[in-house]
Amino acid sequence: MSETKNILLVGVGGQGIILASKVLSKGLVDAGFDVKMSEVHGMAQRGGSVTTQVRYGEKVYSPIIGKGQADILVAFEKMEAMRWIEYLKPNGKLVINNYSIPSVPVLTGQVKYPENIIEELKEKVDTTVIDAANAARELGNIRTQNIIMLGALVKALNITEVNWEEAIKETVKEKYIDINLKAFKRGMELV
Amino acid sequence: MKRLLTGNEAVARGAYEAGVTVASAYPGTPSTEILENIAKYKEIYSEWAPNEKVALEVAIGASIAGARSIAAMKHVGVNVAADPLFTFAYTGVNGGCILITADDPGMHSSQNEQDNRYYAKSAKLVMLEPSDSQEAKDFVKLGYEISEKFDVPILLRLTTRICHSKTLVELEERHEVGIKEYNKNIAKYVATPANGRVLHVKLEEKLKKLEEYSNNTPINKVEFNDKSIGIITSGVAYQYAKEVFGDNASYLKLGMTFPLPKQKIREFAKQVDKLYVIEELEPYLETEIKAMGIDIIGKELIPNIGELNPDIIREALLGEKKEIIEMNSEKIVSRPPTMCAGCPHRGLFYVLSKKKNVVITGDIGCYTLGSAPPLETMDTCICMGASVSAGHGFSKAFEVNGKEAKVFGVIGDSTFFHSGITGLIDIVYNKGNAATIILDNRITGMTGHQENPGTGYTLMGEVTEQIDLVKICEAIGVKHIEVINPLDLKETEKAIDKAINTDEPVVIITKWPCVLKKSPKEEIEEYGLDQRKICTVESDKCKQCKLCLKVGCPAISFEEGIGAIIDDTMCVGCDVCLQVCPFNAIVKVGE
Ligand code: SF4
Ligand code: SF4
User: Fold this and answer.
1) Is the ipTM of this complex over 0.90?
2) Phi and psi (nearest 5°) for A65?
């Protein structure tokens, strides 16, 4: 593979995006790719929007991409998908978690959380909707949403060169390995 | 072995491999993780200093003693450390010494986007600028060699994108260098005017040699491809340039940007047709190169505001724009960072927000978020420590001009130790009447929970003396000191009202641990943190007055027709909203 692939993960602080990106990057590095990963927004712990970018290929230069360049956008939260959709290639893929987290202006009633997000996005781009929250609940741990989304990402991009099981085992805490392996598989099935 | 490391992790690894034994820093995004990672290597003594000036001075002392040392800080931290820095360039080193400046183009979490490359030129310091994590590690190691060979301190400049991006790094073994012999040398290390005059001459001689070095060092690297376009660049901008132009241009990539390799630049310029400078923020390279009489295109096309990226370059220099998916952006609601559910600062700010005729001078930390809606309780925020001193200035100006308003300076515990103390001394000494509120959440909150002199632990995890804020304030001469629980609104209000009606210096210490802090057992017991019960709204009693929304807790939402709702996964039971509800609709779960 000569071309560089660009992955963009977006969501809200606390959703486990950084961990999912770590597993992703680890797997890609072990498979022999040049990889660069960048956290784009700070103050994550305080409810702000969080994004990470992962780029991989034979040789990667810039750690960040600009608008219209992601091959895939994985949104852990609905509204964040809208916020970052400009970064997706017009023929790229969107994997969206059917899950909303209202921001403070919404909570305090100043503004409304947008409606019909998924419908609008579907009109413009190749969209796969995932109900990761419910799937995670079924597995018995709501916090595995992130690895479910990762499984979906891997399936959607069809990254076959990587030993994902190994990457998960080496990245997550020991007592969560089993449930995360299940979550990963579940995510792949959902696409 | 290759590993993915952030630039900060790579700098820490570089310090380890280079045989560094002393490291000091004050936390500040994006530099914080450098010391957090250095602290993992037991070979290196590492510490949090109360501020950046102290951190640098510790590194300077260690260097003169003969050890390789490092100090790390964010860009604005260098302003605090600038005093010793300029003189350190004169004295030079014994053991090698590196100062890391982590600049923040784009102001991801800073109050300005100053370009610290100018410090190198102004203070006459060798400057290195890595463009990825591998170089960050390599340049640290090379930095120590240069530092010791030429007897100069090194300024190593990172930017947020380097600090927080992971790229591949080849790990190597640590090279023990031990400690160099220390010989007393008054002429070198005692900066009296007489010595300084000699040292300045010596420094200029060193800089000449360093320019020669700069012309020959492989980290100032020429890559010839297509010669119709030549690009001079440094730092992460090099990666962006490569991304856009690939092999369709030739590059002069500068790893050492002070002193500049003037001869190399001239030769490169001669061999290409059209010459660009691609650099982030200020036209630092551009101005220098233009002063050499070389024609170059830079800031007329590339902005000097904000973080650079490949797109900006592509559009500015090639006129290309990527096709994008357009959405109705008006629909997208903002998601600003906010004080956490159960944050101990919320109670205080809520009480302050109700007071008329008060001015709140703010500071740098989580509590700066008190300036955001719905609380909006802040009039100023300039830099660390300015809450206290600017508050004093504010109250004096009002006093002299016959205006009335009570001024409250709000400052965190770590920030008070950093540079609030001197402001408070000023208030007491100069008979001010501004009140100081120290928001003591028992940790350095904003940067992700670093220990500080008030917490009782060191960076290396040892138990240590806890500096007592009350005793410090007493020693400074403050007579009116109160320690309160900011989650208790009545108690807080009483303290604030008393301060409003007092004409002498007042200190209020709001003491309650940060809700995200992993409290030690004693703290959990002291504050009864495990006894707390979360709150819920009895919807039949909720009159939908929305008053509880005014506290701005992210756990409370409102639905028309139903009333307030408390998210049980977020609420920690701090009780602030419960005290605000006039209809007693908010109750403790299970009571
Ligand atoms: S991290 Fe701590 S101090 Fe900062 S907003 Fe959250 S609770 Fe408050
Ligand atoms: S008690 Fe009220 S203010 Fe405190 S965390 Fe819970 S909902 Fe927020």
Assistant:
1) yes
2) -120, 165
Contact B486, B439 (CB under 8 A): yes
User: What is the amino acid identity at position B585?
Assistant: A
Supply the pTM of this predicted model: 0.95
CA distances from B456 to B466, B468, B522 (A): 4, 10, 12
Contact list in B for residue A37 (CB cut-off 8 A) is 4, 165-166
* Chain B residues whose beta carbon lies within 8 Å of the beta carbon of residue A45: 340, 448, 516
Name all residues whose Cβ lies below 6 A of ligand 1. A 46; B 339-340, 343, 345, 366, 441, 445, 514-516
What is the pLDDT, as a whole number, of residue A1?
Answer: 44
Q: What local confidence, expressed as pLDDT, does residue A100 receive?
A: 94
**Mean pLDDT for the stretch of residues B177-181:** 97
> For chain B, how far is it from start to end, CA to CA, in angstroms?
58
For ligand 1, atom 7, the nearest C-alpha belongs to B343
Across the A:B interface, residue pairs with CB atoms under 8 Å apart total: 157
- The residues, ordered by sequence, that sit 6+ positions from B513 with a Cβ below 8 Å of its Cβ are B344, B441, B442, B443, B519, B523, B527, B529
CB contact (8 A) between residue B4 and residue A25: yes
Q: Which two tokens stand for residue A191?
A: 């696409």
Percentage with pLDDT > 70 across chain B = 100
Give residue A44's pLDDT band: very low, low, confident or very high (50, 70, 90): low
Please give the residue of chain A at the shortest CA–CA distance from B311.
Answer: A66
Supply φ then ψ for residue B325, to 5 degrees: -85, 125
- Flag whether pLDDT at B542 surpasses 90: yes
- The whole-number pLDDT of residue B40 equals 98
Mean pLDDT in chain B?
96
Q: What mean pLDDT do residues A105-114 have? A: 87
Cβ burial B324-347 (10 Å sphere, 16+ → b, else e): bbebeeebbbebebbbbbbbbbbb
Residue pair B574/B515 in contact (Cβ under 8 Å)? The answer is yes
- Nearest chain A CA: its distance from B287 CA (Å): 25
| Confidence band of A47 (pLDDT split at 50, 70, 90) | confident
Alpha helices for chain A (secondary structure H)? 17-30, 78-84, 104-107, 117-124, 132-139, 145-157, 164-171, 177-189
Question: Which three-class secondary structure state does DSSP give residue B34?
Answer: helix
The structure tokens 């979360």 sit at B534
Exposure string of B90-122, with b = 16+ CB inside 10 Å and e = fewer, is bbbbbbbbbbbbbbbbbebbbeebbbbbebbbe
